[in-house]
Amino acid sequence: MSTALTGALAGLLGGTGLALVLWRLGSRRVTLAQRLAPYLRERPRTSRLLAESQLHTPFPTLERLLAPGLHDAARLLERLGSSSVSIRRRLVLAGSPVTHDQFRMEQLLWGALGLAGGLLLALTVGLVRGAAVVPLLLGVTLSAVGAAVARDQLLTWQVRRRQDRMRAELPDVAELLALAVGAGEGAVAALERLARATRGELTREIDRTLAEARSGVPLGQALERMAGRTDVPAVARFADGVAVALERGSPLAEVLRAQAQDARETSRRELMETGGKKELAMMVPVVFLVLPVTVLFAIFPGLAVLEVGL
């Protein structure tokens, strides 16, 4: 590495460090609201020793030392990527026990791993081929940002996978519930039997709904909450149908059988739509790969004969 390149790299690192220090000093400015908050907020009624710990890692001392920087990095991720509201909503839809702060910590960890991988690759390429510094730094930055975005996309994929499982489980769940109700059991007893006898994502939501009903929440309201937690139209119709049947005294077994039939028709329609999309996707390699190769093999002998004759 030449002397000029070494000086440019040192100047870049020094300028970056100075910019980070100035940005940190500006972000640490205490506002009037922050100064008055300790005197205006309500004092806790119990001892702080009984308060729930907010630590998220097995290294409490290191977490307290790095907490300010981690919070700033989390705010930067919120500006660049998904908002906190979107993250909390998708965590609920995914049925994940991870909190918003824990998800941001995981996102920062993925970003750090991407940064380490990008640095390792950049050092390897720089030492082997002597590439320019600016493309290497750009690649390292893209590696860190890409890893953080990948964790966000993984959460979205988990939500979609869970919703697909619920759609697939809904017809069987509705029919089993209709059989239990038709045999003479009440709605709550049938839901409890279903929760004990089956396993799945929809069964977990039904079990949670029953837990809310045991705690004093009306069953109709608990079913409405289940529909809001799943965000699946078929499950929302199922929960609304059961709630309306319980409220108005309609025959619950007939409602559940109709719900199961609707769910199967919806699954069949979605399967046909997916098959149509896959059929169009299969035409791409046929048209752009197989067909040109076939045409080339067909006309190549004729071209070869023409060249020999000429």
Automatic annotation (TrEMBL):
<feature type="domain" description="Type II secretion system protein GspF">
    <location>
        <begin position="175"/>
        <end position="298"/>
    </location>
</feature>
<keyword id="KW-0472">Membrane</keyword>
<dbReference type="GO" id="GO:0005886">
    <property type="term" value="C:plasma membrane"/>
</dbReference>
<protein>
    <submittedName>
        <fullName>Tight adherence protein C</fullName>
    </submittedName>
</protein>
<feature type="transmembrane region" description="Helical">
    <location>
        <begin position="6"/>
        <end position="25"/>
    </location>
</feature>
<feature type="transmembrane region" description="Helical">
    <location>
        <begin position="134"/>
        <end position="157"/>
    </location>
</feature>
<feature type="transmembrane region" description="Helical">
    <location>
        <begin position="280"/>
        <end position="306"/>
    </location>
</feature>
<feature type="transmembrane region" description="Helical">
    <location>
        <begin position="108"/>
        <end position="128"/>
    </location>
</feature>
<dbReference type="InterPro" id="IPR018076">
    <property type="entry name" value="T2SS_GspF_dom"/>
</dbReference>
<keyword id="KW-1133">Transmembrane helix</keyword>
<keyword id="KW-0812">Transmembrane</keyword>
<keyword id="KW-1003">Cell membrane</keyword>
<dbReference type="Pfam" id="PF00482">
    <property type="entry name" value="T2SSF"/>
</dbReference>
